[in-house]
Amino acid sequence: MNRTITSGRTPRPASLEAIEKAARSDPDAQPLTSGDLRRMKQTPRAKVIRRALELTQEEFATRYHIPLGTLRDWEQGRAKPDQPARAYLTLIARDPDRVHRVLNAKSHLAGARLNK
Q1: Which residues are within 8 A (CB) of 96 and not within 5 positions of it... i.e. 6 or more apart?
Q2: What is the pLDDT of residues 18-66, one digit of tens each?
Q3: What range defines the domain where residue 48 resides?
Q4: In this structure, are residues 89 and 45 in contact, taking their beta carbons and an 8 Å threshold?
Q5: Residue 5 within a domain
Q6: Containing H/E element for 61?
Q7: Which of 40, 75, 88, 115 is geometrically suited to a Cys-Cys bond with 47, CB 3.0 to 4.6 A?
Q8: 24: part of which helix (H) or strand (E)?
Q9: Which runs of E-coded beta strand occur in 22-114?
Q10: To which H or E segment does residue 70 belong?
Q11: Is the dihedral of CA 53, 99, 67, 111 positive or negative?
């Protein structure tokens, strides 16, 4: 049976300069250039929001009254949301439950009236 023997000393943490130097010496871990960033495909914001809410495309589209085809186009990069749609997505991202309640207030009110 082999045993690993250690000195019992805790290694000293590396300085930020040493970490930077080590990272830059690795040819496979170089910083991205502005050209690299332009070529990279960005994940559409609608998809990030939907996944954070753990909703399917169908559920997200229904809940927030977005045509399913439009949502799919946004997520697959075939189309980009215009400014009002981006503002709407920002509202959903910041307070998804409130947006859902506001959009469905009529059905909530109708249900409340039936329960009286």
Answers
A1: 49, 53
A2: 888 888 898 888 888 888 888 876 656 999 999 999 999 999 999 999 9
A3: 44-114
A4: yes
A5: no
A6: helix 57-63
A7: 75
A8: helix 16-25
A9: none
A10: helix 68-75
A11: positive
Domain assignment present for 72: yes
Angle of helix 105-114 relative to helix 96-103, nearest 10 degrees? 60
32, 7 Cβ separation under 8 angstroms: no
At position 81, the amino acid (one-letter code) is: P
Q: Which two tokens stand for residue 114?
A: 């039936």
pTM of the model: 0.58
- CA-CA-CA-CA torsion sign (46, 51, 57, 62): negative
Assigned domain for 26 exists: no
**92 CB-near residues (< 8 Å, 6+ apart):** 49, 64, 99
Name the one residue in this structure whose structure tokens are 């045993």. 3
Inside any domain, residue 27 = no
C-alpha to C-alpha distance for 77 and 46, rounded to whole angstroms: 10
C-alpha distances in angstroms, 95 versus 4, 13, 86, 105? 53, 41, 14, 15
pLDDT, one tens digit per residue, over 79-102 is: 999 999 999 999 999 999 999 999
